[in-house]
Write a structure and sequence with these properties.
Chain A: This is Proteasome assembly chaperone 1. The structure holds two protein chains of two kinds. Chain A is of the alpha/beta class. In chain A, about 30% of the residues lie in helices and about 20% in strands. Classes of the chains: A alpha/beta, B alpha+beta.
C-alpha cells in the first residue's frame, strides 16, 4: 500500500505478485459480453474484402487463384500508382478483375466506378491481350492488422511460385539513414530490395542497411521471401510525398526491367497522361500556392 | 525521438531542433517554384503558376504581390499564411511612410516580415508561418536588392535564389549560370529567370508568371503574350547554342 500526497491510499505495484492479485487481475481482464461484441464488430469493420465492383460480389477464392499470372506488378502509394497509370496502363486494354474494400482509422476505400487520384482505392487489373499479367494499384493505407488479410485474399494461403512480383512504392527521404550528409542526397532516388529467388539484376542500387521497408510493401516482400517467390521492391525516396511529377519520373529506370519492358509502348503519350494527372490533382487543393 | 518534441513550437528537442519550424519548411516545398534574380539595373521575380480549376477566377491566385511601389514579394507555401503576412507588410509599409515620411527600404520590410515570423516560432499556442518569401526592390540609393525569408524568421540577401518545389534544381542551375554576362543587361536577367524556371516547369511559358522592377519605376507584371515571346526567344537561343556546340564537337 502507498499513500499519495493528497492522503489517498493506493495499491503499490508489487513485482512478486500474489495469488490474490492474479485473481483480481484476471477478473479485470475477463471480457464482458458487450466488450466481446464491440471487439467482433470492430474486427468485422476492419475485414479486408475482395470484390468485383461491377457486380459487387465477393471473390470466393484468392485473386491469384482465380486469375493466375506470371507477372504481378503492385503500385503502393499515389506516386507509384500515377507511374503505372501513365507508363504501363496506356500500353493496352486492362480489365478490372477485383478491388479490395477496407476500412481503418486512416482511410476508407471507395468503390465507385470513376476513381479520382485523390481518393483511396485498391484495384486489380489484368491485361486483356495477356491475362497472365496482373497489376494492382493501391493508393490506400493498409493497417498492420489488415496486411496479412490482404496477402491471403490476394495471394492465397498456398501461392504459386512461378510468378514474378514487382512492387513500386515511395518513402520520405527523412526516413533514409545514411552516413553521408543529407544535403548531398539528390532526391528523388531509387533503391531496390529483393527476395532470394529474384535472379535478375535490379534497375538501381540495393537498399543499404540499416534502412528498412515498412507497411504493405514490406508485408508483400516478406510473404514472397517466405514462400520463395521471385520478387523485387523498388523504393523511391522523395522529399515530396504528395503526387509529384519529378517523383513519378524517378521510377523510369524500372521500365527497363524484364517485367515491365514489354508493357511500355508509348512514352510521349505517357508523359502527357502524367501531366494531366498532375493538373487534376493540383487543382483539387488550394492550400499551397 | 521526434514524436516527443515535435508537437509544441516552444519546445526544443535534446539535440537542439525546433521540429515545428523544420516541418514548416517542408510546407514551403509544397508550394510551386519561385525564382528571384538581382540584376544590375533590374530585379526579376518568376513563378510557376498554380493550375486553377475551370470555374476558378485566376486573378485570385497570385504569388507575386506589391508591398509598396518600389518593393514586391513572391512566396511559396501555405496560401492563407501568405495572405496574412502580405497584409501586415503592406500596412507596415504605409505606416512607415506616414511616420517617417520616407518609403521603407527593402531590408527594413524584410526584417519586419522576418521578425513577425520569428515571433510565431516563440509563442505558445501558435504555429510558424508556412511560407518562404523572396522580397525584391530598389532603395533610394538606386541599388537593387533581393532578400529571402523562411519560416524560422531568418533573412538573407541573395544575388539569385529559388524557393518552393524543386528549388534545389533551380538553385544549382543559378549557381552555374549566374554570371556577370548573364545579368549584363535587363533582358539577359529576364532570360536567366525564365531559363531557371524552365528547368522545372513542364508546360512551358503558359505556366509562368513574371514581374520586374526597374530603377525608379513601379512593378511591371508581364502579360501572357510578353512571357510567351520571352520564352520563345530563350528557346531559340538555346537551340542555336546547342547547334554551335554540336558543330564544335563534330
Amino acid at each position: 500500500m502507498a499513500a499519495t500526497f493528497f492522503g489517498e491510499v493506493v495499491r503499490a505495484p508489487c513485482r512478486a505478485g500474489t495469488e490474490d492479485e492474479e485473481e483480481e487481475e484476471e477478473e479485470g481482464r475477463r471480457e464482458t459480453p458487450e466488450d466481446g461484441e464491440v471487439r467482433q464488430q470492430l474486427a468485422r469493420k476492419r475485414e479486408v474484402r475482395l470484390l468485383r465492383r461491377q457486380t459487387k460480389t465477393t471473390l470466393e477464392v484468392s485473386l491469384l487463384e482465380k486469375y493466375p499470372c506470371s507477372k504481378f506488378i503492385i503500385a503502393i502509394g499515389n506516386n507509384a500508382v500515377a507511374f503505372l497509370s501513365s507508363f504501363i496502363m496506356n500500353s493496352g486494354v486492362w480489365e478490372e478483375v477485383g478491388c479490395a474494400k477496407l476500412w481503418n482509422e486512416w482511410c476508407r476505400t471507395v468503390d465507385t466506378t470513376h476513381l479520382s487520384p485523390t481518393e483511396a482505392f485498391c484495384v486489380f487489373y489484368h491485361l486483356k491481350s495477356n491475362p497472365l499479367v496482373v497489376l494492382c494499384q493501391c493508393s490506400c493505407y493498409v493497417a498492420e492488422d489488415q496486411q496479412y488479410q490482404w496477402l491471403e485474399k490476394v495471394f492465397g494461403s498456398c501461392p504459386r511460385k512461378n510468378v514474378q512480383v514487382t512492387i513500386l512504392t515511395c518513402r520520405h527521404v527523412t526516413d533514409y539513414k545514411t552516413s553521408e550528409s543529407t544535403s548531398s542526397l539528390h532526391t528523388p532516388f531509387l533503391k531496390a530490395l529483393k527476395t532470394q529467388n529474384f535472379r535478375e539484376p535490379p534497375c538501381c542500387s540495393l537498399l543499404e542497411q540499416p534502412n528498412i521497408v515498412h507497411d504493405l510493401p514490406a508485408a508483400v516482400l516478406s510473404y514472397c521471401q517466405v514462400w520463395k517467390i521471385s520478387a523485387i521492391l523498388y523504393l523511391c525516396y522523395t522529399d515530396v510525398m504528395k503526387l509529384d511529377l519529378i517523383t513519378v519520373e524517378a521510377f523510369k529506370p524500372v521500365l527497363s526491367s524484364r517485367s515491365l519492358k514489354s508493357l511500355v509502348k508509348n512514352i510521349p503519350q505517357s508523359t502527357e497522361i502524367l501531366k494531366k494527372l498532375m493538373t487534376t490533382n493540383e487543382i483539387q487543393s488550394n492550400i499551397y500556392t | 525521438m521526434a514524436s516527443q518534441y515535435d508537437r509544441a513550437i516552444t519546445v526544443f528537442s535534446p539535440d537542439g531542433h525546433l521540429f515545428q519550424v523544420e516541418y514548416a519548411q517542408e510546407a514551403v516545398k509544397k508550394g510551386s517554384t519561385v525564382v528571384g534574380i538581382r540584376g544590375t539595373d533590374i530585379v526579376v521575380l518568376g513563378v510557376e503558376k498554380k493550375s486553377v480549376a475551370k470555374l476558378q477566377d485566376e486573378r485570385t491566385v497570385r504569388k507575386i504581390c506589391a508591398l509598396d511601389d518600389h518593393v514586391c514579394m513572391a512566396f511559396a507555401g501555405l496560401t492563407a499564411d501568405a495572405r496574412v503576412v502580405i497584409s501586415r507588410a503592406c500596412v507596415e509599409c504605409q505606416s512607415h511612410k506616414l511616420t517617417v515620411e520616407d518609403p521603407v527600404t527593402v531590408e527594413y520590410i524584410t526584417r519586419f516580415i522576418a521578425t513577425l515570423k520569428q515571433k510565431y516560432t516563440q509563442s505558445n499556442g501558435r504555429r510558424p508561418f508556412g511560407i518562404s518569401a523572396l522580397i525584391v526592390g530598389f532603395d533610394d540609393d538606386g541599388i537593387p536588392r533581393l532578400y529571402q525569408t523562411d519560416p524560422s524568421g531568418t533573412y538573407h540577401a541573395w544575388k539569385a535564389n529559388a524557393i518552393g518545389r524543386s528549388a534545389k534544381t533551380v538553385q544549382e542551375f543559378l549557381e552555374k549560370n549566374y554570371t556577370e554576362d548573364a545579368i549584363a543587361n535587363d533582358s539577359e536577367a529576364i532570360k536567366l529567370a525564365i531559363r531557371a524556371l524552365l528547368e522545372v516547369v513542364q508546360s512551358g511559358g503558359k505556366n509562368i508568371e513574371l514581374a520586374i522592377i526597374r530603377r525608379n519605376q513601379p512593378l511591371k507584371m508581364f502579360s501572357a503574350k510578353e512571357i510567351e515571346l520571352q520564352v520563345n526567344e530563350t528557346g531559340k537561343e538555346k537551340e542555336e547554342a546547342e547547334k554551335k556546340k554540336s558543330k564544335k564537337t563534330a
